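Below sits my pick:
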Amino acid sequence: MFKRDCNCILILSIAAVLGIIVGVVAFNVAIPGIIIAISVTLALTALILLLLTILVVKVKEYECLCDYSKGLALGIIGTVITAVIALSVTIVTASVGIAILLGLLTAFGLTTLLSFIGLILCIINKNCYKCDCMN
């Protein structure tokens, strides 16, 4: 139980700090290519959702899924919602709302990415230390 909460808290802490940094930078500086970055983030989230679906069907590591499912669900849903909002508004510098939106998008995107990497590493570690010859 503690390991699951520790993973989630660590991932959310890293994502929140980097989201705040991106929000501050977006408030002070015009970021060239931000629309492309938002689109790439949305596409990466869709790819992670597709890979997650394949992993759930093919790999039966339910303990690893329990460890990272909250972070993945929060990240995927949050990224999709904030990316759609960010793509539908005009992005300007020195706007508090846009800075908050880009910070949230960064935090949700990093939560998705870090949770997925943690899930993959968990599955690799579970399968690497299992010996089928001992059955």
Summary: DSSP finds four helices and no strands in the chain. Residues 2-122 form one domain. The two ends are 29 Å apart (CA to CA).
